[in-house]
C-alpha cells in the first residue's frame, strides 16, 4: 500500500469514528466528558501557543468539568506567582477589581499566552462562578506550574516571611542576595555560571527551601491570620527558586537536561497542588491542566523519547494511570499569534498547510471541519494512528521558512493522547495589547488543493 493510499485509508477510518463538533455547541463535548468519567487529572493541550480556538475550546470543556464533574483547580503553563494573582482574583481574596487587572502579572515574553481575550473571558467566568460558591475553600482556583519566575518567586518568599517571621526573612534575604551581582537577569546568571565566570547559588536556594519546608508547622502557628494558602504559596515559590536556579544553570549545558528539569518541576508542582487541595477540601481534588501538546502528550510516543526526554503527560500517566486523561489539539491551517524570535514582538502569522502524510493532513482529508476522536475506544483508529506520523508543534516562535525542521516531529498519536480534538481552520489568539505588527498580519496565500 502506497503512502498516499495509507493516508486515504486512515482518513476514511477516522471519518467513520469521529464525533463532529459544531461551533459554539458545548453539548457536543458530552462524549468526551463521558469518556473522562471519574478521572481526576484532565490534561488539555494545544499545538500552538497562539490559537484562539484552542483557548476557547479548552475553556468550554473546563467550564463543564467544573460545573458538572466537580473539578476544583485549573493549572496552567504559567509562572506560579503570576498565576497566583489570578487565583486571588477568581477566589475574591485579592485586591484586583477586574479580571484584566489580575492578568497584569504576566509581563515576561510571551505575554500574549495569558494576556489575551480568551483567557480574560475565562477568568471573568471563573470569578462569576466562584462568587456563587459559599464555602471559600470550595472555590475553583487558578495555578501556575512553570519555573521561569526566579526573582518574582524570591520576592514572594520574602514578602511572606516579612509577615510571619522577620528574622527568617533576614536570613532569606542574605541567601538570595547571591543573585544580586547578576542584575536580576536569570539567563545571565545561568550563562555566567555555566562558563565559570560566576559562583553558583545552589547551596543558598536549597538551604532556604529546606528551612522553610522544615518549619512548616511552626510558621503556620506564628500568625493565625495568615491563611493556609499563604504558606503553600511561599513553599511553592521557594521550591520554584530552587528548581529554577538549577534550570538556568543547566540550560546552557544540555537542552535535554533543562527540558527534563522543567517538566519534572511542573509535575512536582502539580502533585504538591493535589496534596494541598486534598487537605483544603478534605477530599480528593480534580485538576484541569492547560499546557502545550509537547508537555501533555506522552513523550514516550514521540521523538522526545529517543532523545532521552520526558514530559508532564508521561509522568502523570505513569503515576496516576487511568485517573488521568490526555487530550491533544491539532489544526491544519489558518493564522497564529507568534514571534519570529525569542523576545520579539507578537505577530499574526499565517499557518502553512500541513505537510503531506502528516497527522494534520490526514485529519484535513476527513472533510470534517471540527471533530473529537476518542483514541482509546476504537481499535481501527488506534491501528491507523499507531505507526509514527509527522505532527506539527508551534510554540511561541513560528518559522514557516524552516517548517519541516522547526515544527514537525514523529509521533504515534494513538499512544501520545487518549483523545484528540481537531479544528481544521483556526485563527490567531487576540493579545490584549496589539502591536502594529500583529494588526498588519501576514499576507494571505491561496490554500493549495494538493494538501
Class from secondary-structure proportions: alpha/beta
Our count of helices gives 21
In the CATH hierarchy, the third-tier topology of the largest domain is known as: EreA/ChaN-like  fold
Could you say what the CATH architecture of the largest domain is? Answer: 3-Layer(aba) Sandwich
Q: Characterize the largest beta sheet: strand count, sense, and whether it forms a barrel.
A: 9 strands, mixed
Supply the number of structural domains.
Answer: 2
Query: Helicity, in percent?
Result: 40-55%
Please mark out the parts with pLDDT under 50 across 5 or more consecutive residues, or reply none.
Answer: 446-451
Superfamily (CATH H level) name of the largest domain: EreA-like (biosynthetic domain)
Strand content: 5-15%
Overall mean pLDDT score? 91
Straight-line distance between termini: 19 Å
What is the count of β-strands? 11
Amino acid at each position: 500500500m502506497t503512502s498516499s493510499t495509507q493516508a486515504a485509508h486512515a482518513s476514511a477510518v477516522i471519518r467513520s469514528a469521529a464525533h463532529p463538533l459544531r461551533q459554539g455547541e458545548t453539548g457536543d463535548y458530552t462524549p468526551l466528558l463521558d469518556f473522562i468519567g471519574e478521572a481526576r487529572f484532565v490534561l488539555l493541550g494545544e499545538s500552538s501557543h497562539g490559537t484562539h480556538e484552542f483557548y476557547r475550546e479548552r475553556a468550554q470543556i473546563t467550564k463543564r468539568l467544573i460545573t458538572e464533574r466537580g473539578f476544583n483547580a485549573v493549572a496552567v503553563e504559567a509562572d506560579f506567582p503570576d498565576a497566583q494573582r489570578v487565583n486571588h482574583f477568581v477566589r475574591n481574596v485579592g485586591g484586583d477589581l477586574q479580571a484584566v487587572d489580575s492578568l497584569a502579572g504576566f509581563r515576561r515574553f510571551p505575554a500574549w499566552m495569558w494576556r489575551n481575550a480568551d483567557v480574560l473571558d475565562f477568568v471573568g467566568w471563573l470569578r462569576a462562578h466562584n462568587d456563587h460558591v459559599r464555602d471559600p475553600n470550595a472555590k475553583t482556583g487558578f495555578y501556575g506550574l512553570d519555573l521561569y519566575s526566579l526573582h518574582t518567586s524570591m520576592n514572594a518568599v520574602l514578602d511572606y516571611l516579612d509577615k510571619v517571621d522577620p528574622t527568617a526573612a533576614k536570613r532569606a534575604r542574605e541567601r538570595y542576595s547571591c543573585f544580586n551581582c547578576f542584575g536580576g537577569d536569570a539567563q545571565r546568571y545561568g550563562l555566567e555560571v555555566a562558563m565559570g565566570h560566576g559562583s553558583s547559588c545552589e547551596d543558598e536556594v536549597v538551604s532556604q527551601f529546606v528551612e522553610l519546608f522544615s518549619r512548616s508547622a511552626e510558621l503556620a502557628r506564628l500568625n493565625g491570620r495568615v491563611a493556609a494558602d499563604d504558606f503553600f504559596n511561599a513553599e511553592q515559590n521557594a521550591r520554584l527558586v530552587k528548581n529554577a536556579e538549577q534550570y538556568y544553570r543547566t540550560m546552557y549545558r544540555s537542552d535535554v537536561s533543562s527540558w527534563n528539569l522543567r517538566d519534572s518541576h511542573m509535575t512536582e508542582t502539580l502533585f504538591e497542588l493535589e496534596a494541598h487541595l486534598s487537605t483544603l477540601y478534605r477530599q480528593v481534588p480534580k485538576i484541569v491542566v492547560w499546557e502545550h501538546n509537547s508537555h501533555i502528550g506522552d513523550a514516550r510516543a514521540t521523538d522526545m523519547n529517543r532523545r532521552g526526554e520526558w514530559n508532564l503527560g508521561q509522568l502523570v500517566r505513569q503515576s496516576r494511570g487511568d485517573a488521568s486523561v490526555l487530550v491533544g489539539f491539532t489544526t491544519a491551517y489558518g493564522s497564529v499569534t507568534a514571534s519570529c524570535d525569542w523576545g520579539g514582538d507578537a505577530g499574526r502569522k499565517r499557518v502553512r498547510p500541513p505537510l503531506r502524510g502528516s497527522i494534520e493532513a490526514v485529519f484535513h482529508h476527513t472533510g470534517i471541519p471540527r471533530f473529537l476522536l476518542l483514541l482509546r475506544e476504537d481499535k481501527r483508529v488506534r491501528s491507523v494512528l499507531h505507526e509514527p506520523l509527522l505532527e506539527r508543534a508551534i510554540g511561541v516562535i513560528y518559522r514557516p521558512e524552516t517548517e519541516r525542521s522547526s515544527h514537525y516531529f514523529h509521533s504515534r498519536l494513538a499512544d501520545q493522547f487518549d483523545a484528540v480534538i481537531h479544528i481544521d481552520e483556526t485563527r490567531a489568539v487576540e493579545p490584549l495589547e496589539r502591536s502594529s505588527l500583529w494588526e498588519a498580519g501576514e499576507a494571505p496565500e491561496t490554500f493549495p488543493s494538493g494538501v
